[in-house]
Specification:
Blueprint: H1 12-16, E1 24-29, H2 36-45, H3 69-82, H4 93-101, H5 104-114, E2 123-127, H6 135-144, E3 148-155, H7 158-168, H8 175-192, E4 206-210, H9 211-216, H10 218-228, H11 232-235, H12 239-248, H13 260-263, H14 267-283, H15 291-314, H16 316-335, H17 342-345, H18 348-352, H19 356-377
Parallel strand pairs: 1-2, 1-3, 3-4
Helix pairs in contact: 5-6, 7-8, 8-14, 8-15, 14-15
Length: 379
């Protein structure tokens, strides 16, 4: 944009976008391992733009993540500053990340990152499992670029999400923690993606997508998403792009199946997790996003906060014990004698049989070797 008061300078997008497709940012939210990569991969192959560079594929997701590396890096930075985990079960964690999301420099940083990507395509897709922690920030930043933020939240049964994390991430935090973090994440994601007050009882600006529906009939599910969110790229996609998605989708992607009974959760957490899933599942139905359902989610969010605070209050001894154990281990490691050199490990009778001049030469050579190794390690 040119200086205030002067004629705006034409942008490259005006030439590439003669029909004037409005700017949109599709924010794909949801817990990790719930199908967010699959949805982002589909819409990108249908023509929406994932800002580059992308996170490279790995063994846990060989078909790729379809998420911008910059987004992952900045979210990791902010989570570390907030002392919040990606899968954090604490209701108070939302206040910690909210302090960053409300900062003007953070909003400016995201807006400035978004702006040049619209010169590539007017409809962007941003996906990252950490995204839910900062949805409010992304909403504001998108609006500042003249774009409309829209939201797609992926839904997958919580037992399958927990099982998938344990399988692919070797997670040692336990089923109860992972289930609690899923409840915490999804209840607050639902709240953060609600349209502004006064928009009626419809789900304007957001959709909820079942992972199973995406694998069973991705064409019907994705086209419904495109129409609900008014995404021109999806609605007017080409046949060759549809064929590419057919090659991308693997019906066997649902490799982990489990039920809540398989997790062995504490009774109240089991009930709350099951009720949260039942209500989320309703949101994926046409006309399911009503004011009545949102009120139910408010009650569930309060019930989870109460459960967590009660559990935290009676488990303080465990936290104190863990800190004491950590302190004892740190003190023990600090007091441990330094490892002996190689020369000192040679038995005394063997060293005594070696002439003194030879012993000194060997010791100096070993010390030089250790010094060279340390120097390389520090580079």
């Amino acid at each position: 944009m040119s200086e205030q008061g002067s004629t705006p300078t034409p942008r490259a997008i005006d030439e590439l976008n003669p029909e004037g497709v409005a700017r949109k940012v599709l924010l794909v939210a949801g817990a990790g391992r719930s199908g967010t990569s699959t949805l982002a991969g589909i819409v990108s192959r249908l023509g929406m733009h994932v800002p580059l560079p992308e996170v490279p594929p790995d063994e846990s997701n060989p078909r790729g993540f379809s998420e911008p590396q910059w987004v992952v890096d900045v979210h990791d930075e902010w989570l570390a500053e907030s002392l919040v985990q990606v899968s954090d079960a604490r209701p108070s964690a939302w206040f910690d990340t909210g302090r960053i999301a409300s900062r003007e420099p953070a909003r400016i940083r995201v807006s400035e990152w978004l702006e040049p990507h619209f010169d590539v395509h007017p409809e962007l897709v941003v996906k990252d499992p950490r995204l839910s922690w900062f949805l409010g920030l992304w909403r504001v930043a998108a609006i500042r670029t003249g774009a409309t933020p829209v939201f797609a939240t992926m839904l997958r049964p919580p037992a399958e999400v927990v099982g998938s994390k344990q399988k692919y991430y070797a997670n040692k935090l336990g089923s109860a923690h992972l289930a609690a973090s899923w409840v915490n994440m999804l209840l607050h994601t639902e709240r953060a993606t609600r349209p502004a007050e006064g928009n009626g009882d419809g789900g304007t600006g957001r959709v909820f997508v079942r992972y199973e529906d995406l694998l069973t009939d991705w064409v019907r599910t994705t086209m419904a998403l495109g129409q609900a969110l008014d995404l021109e790229t999806i609605v007017h996609t080409r046949s060759d792009q549809i064929r590419e998605v057919h090659r991308f989708i693997d019906p066997t992607l649902r490799r982990v199946t489990a039920t809540l009974d398989d997790l062995g959760l504490p009774r109240r957490l089991h009930e709350l997790t099951g009720e949260t899933w039942a209500q989320l599942d309703r949101l994926a139905d046409e006309g399911g996003d009503t004011l009545e359902v949102r009120a139910t989610f408010d009650q569930l969010r309060q019930a989870y906060t109460d459960l967590y605070e009660e559990s935290e209050a009676i488990s303080r001894s465990s936290g104190v014990h863990a800190r004491l154990q950590g302190r004892r281990q740190a003190l023990a490691e600090a007091a441990a004698p330094a490892p002996r050199s190689i020369a000192d490990r040679v038995p005394h009778e063997v060293r005594a049989a070696i002439p003194p001049t030879v012993r000194r030469g060997v010791r100096k050579a070993l010390e030089r070797g250790r010094g060279g190794s340390s120097a390389r390690d520090g580079q």
